[in-house]
Design a protein that fits this description.
By secondary structure, the chain is mainly α. The chain is built from 18 helices and 6 strands. The longest helix has 27 residues. Strand 5 and strand 6 form a beta hairpin. Helix 6 runs antiparallel to helix 11, helix 10 crosses helix 18 and helix 11 packs across helix 18. The strands form 2 sheets. The protein has a 3-stranded antiparallel beta sheet with strand order 1-2-3. The chain has a 3-stranded antiparallel beta sheet with strand order 4-5-6. The protein starts with a strand and ends in a 28-residue tail after the last helix. The structure holds carboxymethyl coenzyme *A (CMC). Carboxymethyl coenzyme *A binds next to loops.
Length: 429
């Protein structure tokens, strides 16, 4: 990383600040000493201009619609690789050799079962609990079951915790689903690949033989690749902040999962499908477009817009193709939701409001239709996102823990509350 200097004038004083340059993308001004030199903080709610860390994992060029994992374009990884290869790449920094891939697959597969007492732990939830509520609780609970991988200062324990989370997340997500539909949990079958195993744990029942559809399994694997990491988004930043205090990795991933749940983030896939259902038919689209444009109406087109992408989300393009593959495979010729989605996209992309604000479809716009066609209820969509994003969270957490300059994350504030005042006893207020 090369460095030059920038200057800031504050109260007639000139302060020098280093400019740090990364391998690609915008440079950053290092303001680390600003408070010591000026007595002032910077102010950036929503972190729109603030780089919170240095990272080598994922790169996004929002203007060009580019997403790279460790330098590899998402399109190439989704086309040629599988999800566990992407996991290895994100964690280790390089694509695996054939021997490394076989070893990694074996190690992840060996950890797919969860502690049997966790099944009883599930019984404590209400049957109608949202799967994300169950996920947040059960992921956090893993720290109570796997004590031998919570010491973050031990690289071996960090590695075991990482394997456990990648391996057990599908099992927990499938259990969360089975619990809400009142069916018995299905144990993992380690002769199956990662995505096929997950489909089987979700949709097999003991009374019948279950055959995995390879087209659906491949589509799901691709969906997992597309969701695997997305640099310093809200949930990843949550994981990093939680981890910066030294919290154990299971607790950190539970924190990230909680953050992902919100409708502005991972909850948008569920919200997007609900919106398409609410729109119902192509004739109703203009009414909803008008609502989205009305400043006095809080309604937004879910699955549209992104903090970073001011161009078509590259993941949305792959997702759209995957949607068609899945619907074709399942023989769904006329899906009214797909008709609404295609027409909504067409109208929005030619509307001046969306063009001026650079609001394009994001990954969540098409993922809901695909997951619904596969048989997942809407309430499971964000749980699937959490499953796939776990590897990204872990890679980012690991990168932070292994950075020698790592310190606890502690943002500052602009205080606008009352100045100091005297306490008044209750009778004199
Ligand atoms: N529909 C209508 N108007 C919108 C939309 C939308 N989906 N998104 C943004 N705008 C408008 C917004 O009203 C604002 O207008 P103005 O400047 O006149 O006030 C302008 O565009 C900028 O919006 P913003 O809220 O300041 O932008 P942001 O970067 O803070 O928010 C976002 C990004 C993703 C939260 C937002 O676009 C949104 O709420 N989209 C819908 C939810 C969604 O699809 N989220 C999934 C994101 S991708 C998956 C993930 O990362 O989890």
């Amino acid at each position: 990383m090369s460095a030059t200097t920038s200057q800031l004038q504050v109260d007639g004083k000139t302060v020098d600040m280093a400019i740090k340059t990364g391998s690609i993308g915008p440079s950053v001004i290092d303001i680390g000493k600003l408070y010591a030199q000026t007595g002032m903080f910077t102010y950036d709610p929503g972190f729109t201009s603030t780089a919170s860390c240095e990272s080598q994992i994922t790169y996004i060029d929002g203007d060009e619609g580019v997403l790279l994992y460790r330098g590899y374009p998402i399109e190439q990884l989704a086309e040629h690789g599988d999800f566990l290869e992407t996991c290895f790449l994100l964690l280790e920094g390089e694509l695996p050799t054939a021997a490394q891939k076989a070893d990694f697959d074996y190690r992840v597969t060996r950890h797919t079962m969860v502690h049997e007492q966790m099944a009883r732990f599930f019984q404590g939830f209400r049957r109608d609990a949202h799967p994300m509520a169950v996920m947040v609780g059960s992921i956090g609970a893993m720290s109570a079951f796997y004590h031998d991988s919570t010491d973050i200062s031990d690289p071996h324990q960090r590695m075991v915790a990482s394997m456990r989370m990648i391996a057990k997340m599908p099992t927990l997500a499938a259990m969360a689903y089975k619990y809400t539909v009142g069916q018995p949990f299905v144990y993992p079958l380690n002769s199956l690949d990662y995505s096929s195993n997950f489909l089987r744990m979700c949709f097999a029942v003991p009374a019948e033989e279950y055959k995995v559809n390879p087209v659906l399994s491949r589509a799901l694997d691709r969906i997992f690749i597309l969701h695997a990491d997305h640099e310093q988004n809200a949930s990843t930043s949550t994981v990093r902040l939680a981890g910066s205090s030294g919290a154990n990795p299971f607790a950190c991933i539970a924190a990230g999962t909680a953050c992902l749940w919100g409708p502005a983030h991972g909850g948008a896939n569920e919200a997007a499908l609900k919106m398409l259902e609410e729109i119902g038919s192509v004739e109703n689209i203009p009414k909803f477009i008008a609502k989205a444009k009305d400043k006095n109406d809080p309604f937004r087109l879910m699955g549209f817009g992104h903090r970073v992408y001011k161009n078509y989300d590259p993941r949305a393009k792959i997702m759209q193709k995957t949607t068609h593959e899945v619907l074709n495979e399942l023989g769904i010729k006329d899906d009214p939701l797909l008709d609404v989605a295609i027409e909504l996209e067409r109208i929005a992309l030619s509307d001046s409001y969306f063009i001026e604000k650079k609001l394009y479809p994001n990954i969540d716009f098409y993922s809901g239709i695909t997951l619904k066609a596969m048989g997942f209820p809407t309430s499971m969509f964000t749980a699937l996102f959490a499953l796939a994003r776990t590897v990204g969270w872990i890679a980012q957490w690991k990168e932070m823990i292994e950075d020698p300059s790592q310190r606890i994350g502690r943002p500052r504030q602009l205080y606008t509350g009352s100045p100091p005042r005297e306490y008044a006893p209750i009778g004199r207020r």
